[in-house]
Amino acid sequence: VIIGVFDTGIWPERRSFSYLNLGPIPKRWRGVCESGARFGPRNCNRKIVGARFFAKGQQAAVIGGINKTVEFLSPRDADGHGTHTSSTGRHAFKASMSGYASGVAKGVAPKTRIAAYKVCWKESGCLDSDILAAFDAAIRDGVNVISISIGGGDGITSPYYLDPIAIGSYGAASKRISVSSSAGNEGPNGMSVTNLAPWVTTYGASTIDRNFPADAILGDGHRLRGVSLYAGVPLRKRRRL
């Protein structure tokens, strides 16, 4: 299965994108590995079968174009979100959360192939024209699934004919390509779910099977339970509040 991921790009050196024990790239794949800043053909492999970036909308709409001091004009991910969403299809050993909860990060489908479509840019977001261009490209390239974790909240849902994800995914669905999208990061209040088109499978968030306890023990023995990922210099044993 080839999954096209629409996001902020990909950081190909991550262990999650190892091509160990993967066979040849499926013959039906027609995509490419585009070159750009710190990204070239060698960054694709039997796991990352293709990578593209879509910047024409950004370059036309954003004053001064894309900020190359914080971004890569290429499929390389300067934000991290795209690398995260792309890595859900592989096992990565010796993983941790900021040094805590060491273990194995397990993707749901380890033998899937990834095609990265960079449509979102650090500090300047995602434009409709670039998203729609990526839908057209992914359909031509031969993906089986499109995963798109993009969508606003604020209780505003556009009608389908004005929503670029609804429009693009309708075209993909008509070509028998499954489209999965995120439900957003808001809620649980009403009108907080995004990407509601009936031809899209919309997923809500879950969590991980780890806890990160950080208790504060007061001088009189009272224990205040909390959570922390602090990994800096240890605090002195006795602190005055």
For this entry, give a set of tags:
4 helices; alpha/beta; two-stranded antiparallel ribbon; six-stranded parallel sheet; 241 residues; 22% strand
Structure, explained:
- It is a single chain.
- Helix 3 packs parallel to helix 4.
- The mean pLDDT is 90.
- The strands form four sheets. This protein has a six-stranded parallel beta sheet. A two-stranded antiparallel sheet has the order 3-4. Strands 6-7 form a two-stranded antiparallel sheet.
- The protein is globular, with a radius of gyration of 21 Å.
- The protein has four helices and twelve strands.
- The chain has helices at 56-61, 81-86, 128-141, 164-174, and strands spanning 2-7, 48-53, 91-97, 100-106, 113-118, 120-121, 125-126, 145-148, 178-182, 201-203, 216-217, 223-224.
- It has 241 residues and is an alpha/beta fold.
- Strand 11 (216-217) and strand 12 (223-224) form a beta hairpin.
Summarize the structure.
The chain is α/β, with parallel strands linked by helices and 241 residues long.
The largest beta-sheet arranges its strands as: 2-5-1-8-9-10
| Relative strand content | 15-25%
Low-confidence segments? none
Work out the helicity level: 10-25%
Oligomer: single chain
- Number of helices, counting only DSSP H or I runs of 4 residues or more: 4
Rg over CA atoms, rounded to whole Å, is 21 Å
Shape: globular
Main sheet overview? 6 strands, parallel
Query: Which structural class best describes the helix and strand composition?
Result: alpha/beta
Q: What distance separates the N and C termini?
A: 56 Å
Averaged pLDDT: 90
